[in-house]
Amino acid sequence: MIRKLVSETVLYGGTTILVRLISYALTPLHVSVFAPESYGIVSEFYAYAVAANVIYTYGMETAFFRFASEQKEKIGHFLSNALSTLITSSIILSLLLFLFSQPLAVSLGYEESGAKYITWFAILFAVDAIVAIPFALLRLEHKAKRFAFIKISNAFLILFFNAFFLYFCRHIHEGRYLTDWKPYIDIIYRPEIGLGYAFLANLIANLLLIPMHAPVFLKFNFRLVWEDLRPMYVYGYPIMLSGLAFAVNETADRIFIKYLLPENFYEGRPSQYAVGVYAACYKLSIFITMAIQAFRYAAEPFFFARAKDKNAPSTYAFILDYFVVFCCLVIVFVVANLSILSQLLIPNKAYWEGLPIVPLLLFANLFLGVYYNLSVWFKLTDNTIYGAYMSMIGALVTIFLNIALIPLLGYYGSAIATLACYFSIALISFFWGKKYYPVPYKVESALGNILITAFVVSAMFLLKPDSFIYEIGIRNAIAFAFVLVIFVKYKKRLSSIFARKP
Predict the structure, then answer these.
(1) CB of 125 within 8 A of CB of 53?
(2) pLDDT of 347-401, one tens digit each?
(3) pLDDT of residue 61
(4) Is residue 165 exposed (0-12), middle (13-18) or buried (19+ Cβ within 10 Å)?
(5) Residue 387 vs residues 363, 376, 394, 474: alpha-carbon distances, Å
(6) What are phi and psi of 267, to 5 degrees?
(7) 3-state secondary structure of 185
């Protein structure tokens, strides 16, 4: 079973990592084109988009996965219901955004272009919600290659359209090269749109997802049967509440920085400058977020499939222990090579002052991954409301600490709040899970590995070598020593997992 989970994690993980790498190629592109203030606006709108996506899908993706995985003979039945309700609600919600786009833009402080951005996002939200079910169906049917093809194609299209508008069209319009093409480019390129092309590129690429999922849309039957939808709504609404709370946990810091940062905190620069720096440096936690996302794609069907196995709790405990080890290794090597990674992913030096927050965000995401492991108890026992409770507790921690710390510490306060939030929900989930679905987690082992990792990372930051090469050499020497310690500790168990004969 462990080998199967590893193979599925590698399969989905390879896709996730590639998609994330393609997506994160937008970071050096955007920070090269946009000043921190403008990049802060882009980050702010995408922060709102996270919450909107949760509202548009209202837990229906997970509900479909849950019910269809239990009654596979009725997959088409659940597909039609889930897709029909999402199409209907998405149309209604997007029409409301169209009608109130101007008042919303004024309330956000973007009177000039805000209404146009909101209109584009209204279409984007609807498309993302509608294609969520076809993506879930591909996972349910184990069509990993098709899933990978569509995800990777979409990521490349987003990158292509960003580069096309922000570099190719802009440079031709400005007369830097291919001046003969300018009359044709000016038909489709408008310089006044500016940073809006970051949104428009995403919208165009995501609209192309619909023809990619054509086989699903062509065979589904529109139907809204309350008796069938009611249990899906009941299962899904706590997930929506949980998702909204997580949206607060993951993205509200950008919004809090905008409104709570004292006026002259960063030498008189606008708050959007701090939002841009924070958002760009947050992207350096890409490597651990990729690992977590890959694990989630593979682990969710794995956990459901093994739920009735009498040895399932021991298996889940085993998985968490190795998950923590892997994340600790990722953290150590990211910090060891932070100087190189920052130059590759954030080539604009104006953003580098925020690099010290990266270790805090890496550990925050580690605890988020631990929470995803621990969440198996309320998903398998159909107590999803507890997931909503924990997410709301985390949201309260996020809100309180951001309000308290941003005026004192700037975006460092947001990083600390993120770490405290994910640690708190992981801790609560562990204790509540012991009551409803006991799992013999190796707590001492996991905490020991995390503490050792924190010590190693602190040692790397305390060392201040004279040269760049010396810094990289010393930090990586410490990282490899850490790997050796982990290998010695887990040598016997690793050999048993990957042995040809169990």
Answers:
(1) yes
(2) 888 888 888 899 999 999 999 999 988 888 887 787 878 887 888 899 899 999 9
(3) 87
(4) buried
(5) 21, 10, 11, 42
(6) 55, 45
(7) helix
